[in-house]
Amino acid sequence: RITNTTTTTITNTTTTTMASAESEQSGSFYDEVENLKILCNFLRSTEGPPVREAVEMDKRVYYLKGEKLVNFLVTPKKGTKWPKNLPKFKTRQ
């Protein structure tokens, strides 16, 4: 079971690493919290990159390493079905 703490941790990591990628997107799609939650749910699914577990403040959390996240967002692993409601990232910048 994934808690709100996990969503917040992944959301913060995603927001930090994707700041420059958002400028490339039309309409700042990822500025809205609901759209970030959709992206986080996709990243935590079996289609997403490898997710690691850790204990932070006596709670189990899932996290992604920054470079692996960016690599996955720009060039998803082979066979990944990118959700239709999420815009793709074109560059690492």
Can you characterise this structure?
This protein has about 90 residues and is mainly alpha-helical. The chain has 4 helices and 2 strands; from the N terminus they run αααββα. It has a two-stranded antiparallel sheet with strand order 1-2. α1 crosses α3 (about 35-45).
Structural class by secondary-structure content: mainly alpha
Strand proportion: 5-15%
User: How helical, in percent, are the residues?
Assistant: 40-55%
Overall shape: globular
Descriptors for this entry?
single chain; two-stranded antiparallel sheet; 2 strands; globular; 11% strand; mainly alpha; 93 residues
In short:
The chain is mainly alpha-helical and 93 residues long. 44% of the residues lie in helices and 11% in strands.
How are the SSEs ordered, and which strands pair?
Elements: H1 4-17, H2 19-24, H3 33-44, E1 52-56, E2 59-63, H4 66-74
Antiparallel strand pairs: 1-2
Helix pairs in contact: 1-3
